[in-house]
Every structure is written in C-alpha cells, then in structure tokens.
C-alpha cells in the first residue's frame, strides 16, 4: 500500500485526525461501560447506551463544523456529543442527575443531550420528534441565508413514525440543508428490523422525498465520515438534504432496563462483536497501517481510565439541584401555588 492509498489520507484526513477519531471512539466506549457498571451498582437510575454506534457517531462529528452547524441528536448519541465537545464530567453529571448538568440542569432523563454553546438541541422522548424539528431548523437556516447545516440522528425503528416522513417531505420540498442520519442497529427494542419496515434499506426511502439517499457501513467511522462530509457539502451548496443509513448493530441491551436475551440469540450478538465492533474496526485499521502500536494503545487506555475515573468522582461528589429550583425554567412567571 502506498502512502496515497491509506484510506484516511485519501479522504483528506491527517494521521492526527485518524488517531483522534479512534481516541473518541475509545473514550466514549469506556465512559459508556462505566455507566453500565454504575447502574448495576445502583449508583445511577438509568442508562441508555451507544455501544456499537460509536464509529458512525464519531465519523459524523468529524464532518461538521463544531459550534457552527446544528445538531439534533437522539438518546444513543453520547459519542457524537462527546466528540463535538461535551465533556465526560458533564455527561457523568447527567446520569447522576446532578446540578450543573448542561442538557436540562438535571430535570430531563439522561441522554436527552443539549448544549446551547455547541448548538446541540435537546430532544423530546417520543422517538422521531427531532426529525421535523431538524427540518424546521433547516428552514430557518435557509431563511437566514447562512451556510450552516443541521444533522439529526434516529434509529431505523423511528422511520416508521409519521414525524420521519413529514420531516423528510418538508426538507425535500424546500431543499433544506439537513443531514438525516439513521443509525440502523437492526432492532427497535425487541422488534427486529424486518418487522419495522417492508423495505430492505431505509436509505431507499429518500427517493420518495426527492432527496439523496446513501447507504454506508456504520461500523466504519471513516466510511460514515465520508458520507456525512459529502452530504454536508451538498447542503452548503444549496443542493438540499440527504438521508444516510449507517448499518450497524446494538452490541448491548436497548437500555439498562432491557434483557435482550429474551428476543435475540447470544450467537448473533457474539458474531457481530467479532466481525464489526466499530472500536475494533478502527483499531485494526490503525494497527494495519502502523499508526497505532501496543504501547500507544496502552497509553490511550490508561488516559481514558483516568478521565472516566475523574468524571465519576466529580459527578458522584456533586450536589443535587436544590428542590426549590424544580420549577426554574418551567414557567415564565411562577403561578401562585394553592394548598
Ligand atoms: C413515539 C414513541 N413510541 C415508542 C417509544 C418507546 N421507545 C423508546 S426507544 C424505542 C425504540 C426505537 O427504536 P429505533 O428507532 O430503531 O432506535 P434504537 O433504540 O434502536 O437506537 C421505542 C419503541 C417512544 N419513546 N416514542
Ligand atoms: Mg434500532
């Protein structure tokens, strides 16, 4: 392989950027794993995990201008928001429900990521509501005449919701600068993909709305980077929206409160872990081109452990919001409370 044939360089990414991608995948994974442990230790109430999705999310984040473009994520997007600039301490505050958590001041469930300075818009719990809202942000961008774009994410099950179709229709009619990133992890909780939709590929649905549809290997951060980068370029040129389907696999249960042994065989999960874990895909790639070696890998692991330990300590010791602040930012003017 010549230097020019090295995949990330062909895509215009430096060696440092490729390593940085791997670092974010690794850090998100270790942070996520710690949250599972904290849940099992009864330290936190709930966790919904992005394990298996990190490659797609980190690849997408690298294709955006951080703090300039808008992002309307969904609950699995911890690796995405981490790469965009939310800190492990902030993310840990959220799962503990502690004061200073940036998404909602600990009023929302965790994983409803929001961050005003990074233009990350917090979502609602009903799935796919972010899709028409992202189209609305796209409409506002067109109205203002800037070259910002908006990225929104959702699962393949969410494409059965009316909101998905309305959002894409609107984006298609008005040629809006929106990137719709579907993270197809094969399941909507216990429902397998063939019972969610009659089409083979979610990306095929784009044609019905007159927008570009792209199917990509969601386990490969570089492939997703490439697809999102091209979609961003189209959107900035005024050529409208793109629906990207990143095929991947949820390597863990739906949430801390789900037991996936009741609906999918262990062999299936193990097979996906072996072939397609995005952390290993990126690691193998970097080893194969000599950018990563065992010593550096160990150094990264130690650094990730240190950061996760620090975030955990910080959040565990942080105070809860005072009870009397429960209605802050809920009412413009506090109504009189009757007994
Ligand atoms: C409108 C609505 N229906 C049902 C739910 C309950 N629910 C939460 S997550 C989820 C699965 C969504 O699956 P998918 O869109 O594939 O995303 P994934 O969780 O697999 O990433 C469901 C049914 C909900 N939050 N909102
Ligand atoms: Mg799904």
Order of adjacent strands in the largest pleated sheet: 1-2-3-7-6
Radius of gyration: 20 Å
Mean pLDDT: 96
CATH superfamily: Thiamin diphosphate (ThDP)-binding fold, Pyr/PP domains
Anisotropy-based shape = globular
**What is the C-level CATH assignment?**
Alpha Beta
CATH third-tier fold name: Rossmann fold
**C-alpha end-to-end distance:** 76 Å
Can you put this structure into words, describing what you see?
- α2 (15-40) crosses α4, α2 (15-40) runs antiparallel to α10 and α5 (88-96) packs across α11 (294-317).
- The chain is an alpha/beta fold.
- It has a single domain (15-318), classed as Rossmann fold.
- The strands form 2 sheets. The protein has a 5-stranded parallel beta sheet with strand order 1-2-3-7-6, sandwiched between helices.
- α8 links the parallel β6 and β7 (242-247).
- The protein contains 11 helices and 7 strands.
- The N and C termini lie far apart (76 Å).
- Helix content is 42%, strand content 9%.
- Magnesium ion binds at residues 155-157, 185, 187-188.
List keywords for this structure.
11 helices; 42% helix; five-stranded parallel β-sheet; binds magnesium ion; two-stranded antiparallel sheet; 339 residues; alpha/beta; binds thiamine diphosphate; Rossmann fold; 9% strand
Write the topology of this structure:
Blueprint: H1 7-10, H2 15-40, H3 54-62, E1 70-72, H4 78-84, H5 88-96, H6 130-144, E2 150-155, H7 162-173, E3 178-184, E4 187-188, E5 191-192, E6 212-217, H8 221-236, E7 242-247, H9 266-276, H10 278-288, H11 294-317
Parallel strand pairs: 1-2, 2-3, 3-7, 6-7
Antiparallel strand pairs: 4-5
The structure holds thiamine diphosphate and magnesium ion.
Thiamine diphosphate binds at residues 76, 125-127, 154-158, 161, 185, 187-189, 250, 254.
């Amino acid at each position: 392989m010549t230097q020019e044939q090295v995949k990330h360089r062909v895509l215009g990414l430096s060696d440092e950027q490729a390593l940085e991608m791997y670092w974010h995948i690794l850090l998100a994974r270790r942070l996520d794993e710690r949250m599972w442990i904290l849940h099992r230790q009864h330290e936190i109430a709930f966790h919904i995990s992005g394990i298996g999705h990190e490659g797609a999310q980190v690849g997408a984040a690298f294709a955006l201008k951080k703090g300039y473009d808008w992002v309307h994520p969904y609950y699995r997007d911890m690796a995405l928001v981490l790469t965009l600039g939310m800190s492990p301490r902030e993310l840990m505050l959220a799962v503990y429900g502690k004061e200073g958590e940036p998404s909602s001041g600990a009023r929302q469930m965790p994983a409803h990521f929001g961050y005003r300075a990074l233009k990350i818009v917090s979502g609602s719990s009903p799935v796919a509501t972010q899709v028409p809202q992202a189209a609305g942000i796209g409409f506002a961008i067109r109205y203002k005449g800037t070259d910002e774009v908006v990225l929104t994410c959702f699962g393949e099950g969410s494409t059965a919701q009316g909101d998905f179709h309305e959002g894409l229709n609107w984006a298609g009619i008005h040629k809006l600068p929106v990137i719709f990133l579907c993270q197809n992890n094969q399941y909507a909780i216990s429902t397998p993909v063939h019972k969610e939709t009659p089409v083979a590929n979610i990306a095929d649905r784009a044609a019905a709305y007159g927008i570009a549809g792209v199917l990509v290997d969601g386990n490969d951060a570089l492939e997703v980077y490439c697809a999102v980068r091209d979609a961003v370029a189209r959107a900035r040129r005024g050529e409208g929206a793109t629906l990207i389907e990143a095929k991947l696999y949820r390597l863990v249960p739906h949430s801390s409160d789900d037991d996936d042994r009741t609906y999918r065989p262990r062999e299936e999960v193990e097979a996906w872990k072996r072939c397609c874990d995005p952390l290993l895909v990126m690691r193998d790639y970097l080893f194969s081109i000599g950018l990563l070696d065992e010593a550096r890998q160990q150094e990264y692991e130690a650094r990730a452990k240190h950061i996760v330990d620090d975030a955990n300590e910080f959040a565990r010791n942080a105070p809860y919001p005072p009870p009397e602040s429960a209605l802050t930012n809920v009412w413009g003017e506090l109504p009189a409370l009757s007994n």
